[in-house]
Amino acid sequence: MARTEKTSRPAAVVPVAEDWDAERQQLRAELGARMKTVRQACGFTLEVAAQRTGLAVSTIHKIENGRVSPSYENLVKIARAYEIGIERLFSSDHEQAQTTRMTVTRAGQGRKVRSKNFEYEVLCNALAEKKIVPLVTRVERRAPLAPADLEAHTGEETLFVLSGRVELTVEHYEPVVLEPGDCAYFDSTLKHGLRAMDDTDTRVFWACTYTDVAG
C-alpha cells in the first residue's frame, strides 16, 4: 500500500491591498512622530502651533498621532510656521546643522512619507535648507478632482511622468492627461491637484521650490 506523505500547508499570503494599508499606517505614524518631535524642539505647544499655522489644534494632534495624513500644502504651512526647512519634517537627520552642499540618493533609498493623497519618496534629504524639494511620488487613482480637492502654496513646481497616466488640474486651465515621458511646470500659487487615471503603478518625479521664510 502506497504511503501518503503529509504536505505542509503553504503560508498564507497577505493581499497586496493589506500590505499597502499597513505601509500607509506606518508612514503616517512615522511622519506624525517626527512632526511632534520637531514642534517640541521648537518649544511650541499645540495651541501655539495652531496659531502659527492656521490649522486647528485637533488637526495637528491627529497628524502627530498618525490618525490623518497631511496634505503637501499643510506640510509647507507647518514648516514655514516653525521657521525650518521642510526636510526637517521628513527626517531626524537634521537635528545637527548640515554643512554638505552635495548629496546623492541611491535608487529606492529615499525617505518615504505619506501625505493625504500621495506617497512621497523624498530624495537628497541629507542636504538641509534646500530651495528645491525633489520627490518620486506614487499617485493614487481617484475620482475627477473637485475644487475642494485642489490646494495651493507658494513656489513653483514641475513633474515628469515615470509610469502610468495622470490627470493634472491647475486653476484657470483645462485638466490635462500626461503619460510617461510627459512633463508639466506650473505656478504653485494656483490651486492644483493630480490623480492617477488607471489602477496601474503610477509614479512621477516631482520637484517643488521652497524657501523657509515667507516673503
Key features?
215 residues, alpha+beta, Jelly Rolls, 6-stranded antiparallel sheet, 3-stranded antiparallel sheet, 4 helices, 9 strands, 24% helix
Written as H for each helix and E for each strand, in order along the chain, the element string is HHHHEEEEEEEEE
Biggest sheet: strand arrangement: 1-2-3-9-4-7
Helix count equals: 4
- In terms of per-residue confidence, which ranges show pLDDT below 50 for 5 or more consecutive residues? 1-16
Q: Based on the coordinates given, report the CATH architecture.
A: Sandwich
Helix content: 10-25%
Span of the ends, CA to CA: 87 Å
Identify the overall geometry. globular
Q: Quick one: how many beta strands?
A: 9
What class would the helix/strand composition place it in?
Answer: alpha+beta
Percent of sequence in beta strands: 15-25%
Largest sheet entry: 6 strands, antiparallel
Average pLDDT reading: 84
Summarize the structure.
By secondary structure, the chain is an alpha+beta fold. The chain contains 4 helices and 9 strands, in the order ααααβββββββββ.
